[in-house]
Design brief:
The complex is a heterodimer.
Chain A (H helix, E strand, L loop, with lengths): L9 H25 L4 H15 L4 E4 L2 E3 L4 H8 L1 H18 L8 H26 L7 H27 L6 H33 L8 H16 L1
Antiparallel strand pairs in A: 1-2
Chain B lengths: L2 H17 L11 H9 L26 H27 L12 H5 L1 H9 L1
Helix pairs in contact in B: 1-3
The chains are: A mainly alpha, B mainly alpha.
Amino acid sequence: MHVPDGFLDAPTSVATGAVAVVAVACSLRGARRELDDRTAPAAGLVATFVFAAQMINFPVGAGTSGHLMGGALAAVLVGPWTAVLCLSVVLVVQALLMADGGITALGTNITLIGIVTVVVGYGVFVVLRRVLPKRLGMVAPAAAVGALVSVPAAALVFTLLFAVGGNVPVDLGAVMTAMLGWHTVIGVGEAVVTGLVVASVVAARPDLVHGARPLLVERELELRTGVAR
Amino acid sequence: MNTRRLFAVALVVSLLVAGVASYYASSHPDGLEYVAEQTGFIDSAEDSATVDSPLADYQTSGVDDARISGGLAGVIGVVVMLLLSTGLFWLVRRRGTDDAGSGDVDSDDARPERAHQSEA
């Protein structure tokens, strides 16, 4: 869903640009708490993997395709603040080097793909982690559901931006229906990739998965209680 | 799996995805493009200012073979991403007391076992 230049008018692009600048500035502060000598290289690799994965468009029927956005994936693996920075680096490299996504639309793309997917995807993940059994096996399914919801959420926000600042007057109801419909299908692909990757990393090194860490601490505390008795 | 091996696997997977598998990606328009075509605002799209970049549209200019051209662009992109993002996160990371020195391989190798025990 990389937005090209020209879809949205200048005021809307300036507004999303401001949102992106503020979010990246906050994330630079917030990410300090998530990154240390061990997780900083991991975060670099997560950003790199998301870039690579975004090159793989998978067909979703009727001559349409979609690819991973990666906001929920990055947030669960390395934390939400760092995830915003991961996606922002991906989008800047894509816009400058690959001409993928417009330059004046960069703020819009960071807002949709870098902020909305992270906030919604990680938000759903955290709620599910609280509700589901406190087991490591629940981390990947929770991440997958977060990923599933994050894609139509970004499509919804694009439609709202288009309603405010679209450069062509078209039937907004039709845009909304089509955007939500197709991006729900793309969200299934997002959920599959996110679930598989998170499950793999949890299996190999659960201590390196940001979203799994509260569960690890809890298990250790339970063990100590058992010993004390 | 120790940290270094996991990181190596992640890098190799990224290189293979961007450098090899990308050739087989669907060339259909993505969800947004398709909706723009169907509902009639695709023509408002403008060429990016970087459309003449040597790697524009994930193709390396001057390389005729589509497989090599796309694969090379993907690999260059992965290398640029790795340097930029790791550099950024290394600068942003917190330095100091509690986690200082935990980056060495020996102390990392002790962790997975503890994690697996706790999982049982």
